[in-house]
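Case study.
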Amino acid sequence: MKELEPSTNEREFVLAALRDGARIDGRNFYDFRTLRLSFGADYGAVEVQLGNTRVLAKVSCEVIRPFPDKPTEGFLMFNTELSPMASPAFEVGRQTDEEVLVSRLIEKAMKRSRALDTEGLCIVAGEKVWSIRVDIHFLDHDGNLVDAACIAAITALQHFRRPDVTVVGEDVTIHTLEQRNPVPLSIHHIPICVTFAFFDNGNHVIVDPTHLEEQIKEGDMTITLNVHKEVCALSKAGGIPMELDQIIQCSKIAVIKVAEITAQIEAALAADAKKR
Amino acid sequence: MASIKVEQTGSIISTGPQIVLPGDLLPSAETGLLEDAPTAPVIKLGPGLQPMDDDSIAAVKAGVLKHTAVGNRWWVESNQRRYVAAAGESVIGVVVGKTVEHYKVDIGTAQPALLGVLAFEGATKRNKPDIKIGALIYCRVSLANKDMEAELECFNPSTGKADGYGELKSGFLIKVSLGLARRLLDPKTLILRLLGQHIPFETAIGMNGKVWIHSAEPKHTILICNAIKNSEYLNKDECAVMVKALFEKL
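After joint prediction, the assembly is written out as follows.
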């Protein structure tokens, strides 16, 4: 089903409200929606709720043979599924440009920033390495899928424990969860995406746009950062041109937001670890 | 029919709301549709009820069974988000297309509904309103058949007057559940009155779960919209507390 455009009234009201310094859900321009993290019974299952947007991430692992040219490198794979469950605008088996962009952005933010130590996934060089797979399911679409998916993926990777292995000569033993405590993955840093949307030729910049705001925006930009203020990725696909100082301004806001979100993720993980 | 107890004498005591599930048969004793009755009473079926082949009546959706003695009407009330058009209901739609004879209006049904270009107050072939694509329309469902596109009109066919229907200018639209939209139309629902005590505003409520709000300032409209959305699961006292808190923050 094709997505319907918002009515003229809604479009004009959102813009009028922004000019008046207000957003339709009562938030300030640089506020994220309420972020909720809940963990599944298994290690590596996380559901993220960002306002009405819901994303579920599940991490799984298997032992496979590495590429001959990179014998010590493990695998990290992302599988994003935008099903009609999230929004009737998404169709099964046919990806729209938006869907491709979302999947690519998540992969860029997580994989290319080398957040996960893939060398640490090696069991026997050239023979056996771990392949970590992150399945990201979008359950409800109310805008800003990228940020929610990114939070879900990195939290799931941090929460995940892989089975312990012992290597004696050529023999590899994979211990079940009952035999030995599973081990966490080694994660270098926590990349967090912050998405901005622009209105009125970039005069109004907002953080974490809702679906309606996304439909009306003139352009958007996603900055991926970690707490050490390192920019991992910056994506601006189309939309209005921007001034340099606007981008600097956005990255300054993103630094603050990333610190907040990272703290919340760590608190949630700590609370969950205490329960287990 | 878990909540109905049939006593030995045959009289029925209903304990609280009667919940029906799809496939539940309406008890013939209650509706008066007894086989040995000399004259079958006329009963009117509303949404959620369907006559079966053997003259019994079955529920086709889950909800609370409702009845009014006036006109002997029966219907099932439930809450959902997807709208199924029913004749006579007021709805709010978005114009998504235009042909020579009709506007195509999205009212949240599976297919866009049709609004005749002459179905407005005082419209003639020479003088018809020009409505742009993307405009909001407050209108009435004039024809709703299963498996067909619904038809809409913006005037009362018996008087030819607009009766408040027509294009909605400016303002904002929110989507709520059908149950909340129905409740907002009930004069016993407090939330709109509570809000009205603080700020004057205009509203149009569509049975398709769309609520249009217009007030002098965007900030007020946002506040009203959020208060209405939040009021769905609050009782009267909680609503009053929420509205008070919202206006203190303003």
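Observations recorded in class. The helical segments of chain B are 28-31, 178-185, 191-198, 218-230, 236-249. The domain at 90-168 of chain B is CATH 2.40.50.140 (OB fold (Dihydrolipoamide Acetyltransferase, E2P)). We will return to this complex in the next lecture.
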